[in-house]
Write a structure and sequence with these properties.
It contains twelve helices and no strands. Helix content is about 70%, strand content about 0%. The chain is flat and about 80 Å long.
Length: about 290
């Protein structure tokens, strides 16, 4: 829906048009400024606790006592699967190549952590900016959007941190090229943080698929028939991704990664079907009145 760039109280002159546009940009600037301030405040708190956050959270998937490694191994043995789910923890030492790398990495961790934690507030500021362009009925229906967008984002972050990151780093760090053991994996700190950020933010955005399905279905760009038609292709892509990032060829570890992604796609189809049903019901009521 287009935003109301012009106020109805102004005349349709060039000066009033420019003033309305400038006023709109001014409102956007304050929304962005408040979002940046919130991110910076949280980033400062993260930076003040950077040692604990790095040792416990950032470096967690590289530790052998990480909850994912121990829990999956315990489950596998309890289900009489042997060591099928016991992933070898990454056995590598990270390095830096510049004097300022560790300090700059601390800044990066603080800023990214600030954005992730402040995500609900940032989205709320975005919703407040769009709110004046919505009708009262649309505002009423979109009030829960902040919760659902934040919920699926954090769900994706947790999925990436506790499943995708351990599987990925375990596989990549233990993969060996050749049989002579001539190559030793020594990743840089920047490389590790970059991969961690890509996995976490990418998964957080990917888990917004049900929300995207709802929005696209509301505006008519997607329908359940379209999603069902391309379901088999989506499943193939999901299974390929699961097979690539899982460290072992057994079906159980691939299933642990693939099932949540498949479930998200099915939820998207269900949401799209509900939206289409509501739209058809409203059209029926409109033409019958």
């Amino acid at each position: 829906m287009a935003l109301p760039l012009f106020s109805p109280k102004k005349t349709a002159t060039d000066s009033s048009t420019e003033l309305g546009f400038v006023d709109h940009l001014e409102a956007l600037r304050w929304h962005i400024l408040r979002s940046v301030i919130a991110i910076l405040i949280i980033a400062i708190v993260v930076f003040l606790n950077i040692d604990w956050i790095f040792d416990t959270i950032i470096y967690g998937p590289m530790r052998s006592d990480f909850i994912t490694y121990t829990t999956l191994c315990h489950w596998g043995q309890k289900m009489h699967m042997g060591d099928a789910l016991c992933m070898p923890a990454p056995n590598v030492k990270m390095q830096v190549t510049n004097f300022g790398s560790q300090f700059m990495s601390s800044i990066s961790i603080a800023c990214i952590g600030g954005f992730i934690i402040a995500f609900p507030y940032v989205f709320w500021e975005l919703w407040c900016f769009i709110k004046p362009a919505l009708t009262p009925n649309e505002i009423k229906k979109s009030r829960s959007s902040i919760f659902w967008v934040s919920f699926f984002f954090f769900l994706g972050v947790l999925f990436a941190y506790f499943l995708m990151a351990p599987f990925t780093f375990s596989f990549l760090s233990n993969y060996k090229l050749g049989t002579l053991q001539a190559i030793e994996t020594r990743p840089t700190l920047d490389d590790y943080i970059e991969n961690m950020v890509d996995i976490i933010l990418g998964s957080g955005l990917a888990f917004e698929l049900p929300v995207a399905s709802y929005v696209l279905s509301r505006i008519g760009l997607v329908n359940p028939a379209f999603l069902k038609t391309y379901r088999k292709y989506a499943y193939v892509i999901i299974l390929i991704v699961a097979a690539v990032i899982t460290p072992s060829p057994d079906w159980m570890s691939q299933t642990i990664v693939a099932v949540p992604l498949i479930a998200l796609y099915e939820i998207s189809i269900f949401i799209s079907a509900r939206v289409e049903k509501d739209r058809k019901q409203k059209d029926k009521e409109f033409f019958s009145s």
